[in-house]
Every structure is written in C-alpha cells, then in structure tokens.
Input
Amino acid sequence: MFTILTIDDEENIRNGLADNFELEGYNVEKAANGKEGLSKIEKGGIDLVITDLRMDGIPGEEVVRRVTTEHPGIPIIVLTGHGSIEDATAAIKAGAYDFLTKPLDLDHLNHIVKNALKGREQQKIITELQEKIKNGGNSASDMIGKSAELNKVKELISKAAPSKANVLITGESGVGKELVAKSIHEQSPRKDKPFVIVHCAALSESLLESELFGYEKGAFTGADTQHKGRFEVADGGTIFLDEIGEINQATQIKLLRVIQEKSFERVGGTQSINVDVRIVAATNRNLEEEVHAGHFREDLFYRLNVVRIPMPPLRERKDDIPLLLHAFLREFNIENEKNITGFDNRAKSAILKYSWPGNIRELKNCVESAVVMCTGDEIKIEDLPASVREKGEEKSITIPIGMTLDEAEMVIIQENLAACNGNKSKCAEILGIGRKTLHRKLGVEE
Output
C-alpha cells in the first residue's frame, strides 16, 4: 500500500485530500507546512507528495527542489489557487511531476496520482529484483498473499520453524510447497547452514539412493570417485524431500534409520556417517491412504508427520490472485523488457473465474505467456491462454429487456461484488472505478 503525504496550510484541504485518498486505498500522512512535510519525508516511507505552492515559511517550490535533490524517485504534485503558466513552468523545472489549480477535480487528481505511482512502483520493482538476485533468487518473502488461508500457513511456519521437529507439507502440485520449506529453514536456527533440495519423483529408484546417501569409489560401474550424498551435504542444515510419497520401500527403510539413528552408510561403504539434519518433506499424495494400501511405511509416516502444514490450492485463496498477478507481471515485464501496466477488466474477470488446477505454477505460466503475447499497454483477454480465455468468455450476467440503465448498472455491480466475496476494493478495481465512486453508487456511507 502506497503512502501519500499532503502538505497544505489549509486544514480543510488537508483533511479533504486525506479522506479522498484513504477511500482510494492509500495510506495518508498530513503536514501543515513545508518544514513539517520535509521532516516527515526525512523519516522515510513516503511514496508521493502533494504540496501547496504558496505557504508561509518554506514554499512549495522549495519543497519540490529539496525532495527532488534529496529523495529522487518520489513524485511530487503541486497545487495552487494562484495558477499561472509561470508557476507551472517553475514547478515542473524544479522537478514536479504535475501541476494542478484549485478548486480540484478529485477524479482527475486520482488519475494523475495513479499514473505517478506506477513509475514509483517500477523503481521499487527494480530494486527488489536486484536485491533478490543479490541474495540468490527465491526466498520465503516470495510467499505472496494476504488471504486468511495463507496467513494460517504463515502462522504454522512461524510456530514450527524454531523447533527441531520434522515437518510434512501437503498440497496439490504447484501450490508452493518448496517456498514453505524454504521459509521454515530461513526462520529456523539452521538458516546459516545448507538448505538442500531433493526432487524425489525426478530420480530413478537406484539413482535416488546414491543421491541421498552418496557412494564410495567402485561401488558400481561408473563410480570412479567418492560422492557425498545430499544428507551429508545438508549436515547442520535442512533437507527438503519433495514428493516423498514417490520413494520405494528400500529407500524408506534407509530414510527411517537416518531419522532414528542420525547415521547412514554410503552405497558400497561400511563406515557410518553421523549427521544432524532436519527433514522437511512434501507430498501431493494422501500418505494416510498410501500407508493403508501398504505403499508407504507407517513408522516412517509418523516420523515425518510430526508437524503437518497443509498448503491450500489457489482456488481456495482467490483473494491472493491480484497480488500474485501484480508480482508476476513485474517480473516478466523486466525479463521481457516491456512496460505493461496491468490487465483489462475482461482479462481480470477471466482470471478470477478460472479454477487454476495447476495452482500458482499455472498462474505464473499464464502471466508469462500473456506478457509475451501482449502488444499494447494492457493485457487483454485475447492475450490469455485458451483455457483461461474460454472461461472468461462464458456469459454469466443476464440483463433482461426493459431494465433501465441504472438497474442494469446495479446488477453488474452486485454480480461483481458477489464474485469478489464482498471485497469492495477488488470489485472497484475490476469495474475500473474508484472505491469512492463504488460507495456512491451503492449508497454506502464511510
């Protein structure tokens, strides 16, 4: 959420602007003069400044100069009741993003603020991605979302991470189980030790054993040198066993011994190797059913299932989709050297209607494809993959003949509001209007 600072020596204007921007979903800070405003900017956290031009003490033009010089990247919009070409030229030369005269057209101001913050956001994106690359790629902070379902997962992670307990993460393919595992490691006392990933389903039975436990020189044809296994590499840290339900019975027995005795032998070796490794496992299978069917050892299941973290599918946390779209669009804009501003209303509607059987992985692939296919400033429904596009093209709202324009508008608003589970901010975004406008149409008082 962006924070806007309004600087004006007229209290009613400060408060009026604050009420307007809060309705639009922004945080707001207020200052009665230039000195107070600059002090708030120095403390940090301000994303955009709106300042009166003529004030006692430090005037708006000086505020513009100081912010532009000392805090480059923060857009500044200048307001004045004494507008002139000279004033506008001086403010723009000093570094202002735009110049408006009083009395204000709030819809026009909101449009300018939205555009100004797009540039601010792009700057933040570049900084975040540079930091991400510097730190070696994905991290726990990539668990994007604010839904109640995801917050439950984050709460479980915060409780489990400081302990030594093994963790079993369950959920469909593509829901982000690896990010949960990485988050557990990063919040644990082992965070400075190795985090080793093993994709069990990607390795054959014979190769899996040698990868997990290593092998001695001459253990089999082609074993020309000694090879350390993943458990040995992970000593002191965490090993993430993805798709644990795919391992065979022989490997299950050896894995159980590692958990019980904290030791193992390399393939072809006789010397016991002691390790201190925390196990985080994940599966898209129902392991209780696998145990009942005799495919998975019951004793191993209980050793792994000390703490269970179920990761919900994307269709159960649709509140997170707008944030995920935003993050993926940022990433693929930079990767493909594009500057796509967002998704049009039909594209958004299609994305929200789709059930996402491939979960976050499928959503990410969808956005990447759409960015590549898009030739304009906004992703349209035509840019989406066929499976998503077809869902969006389904007719879902019927407007009977004889209904007035006002009645039809209310049907559309109510249908979209229901689809957004009553979330007015999301509904307003889909309809392409501000929250204040939506409230007015619904007759809702703030």
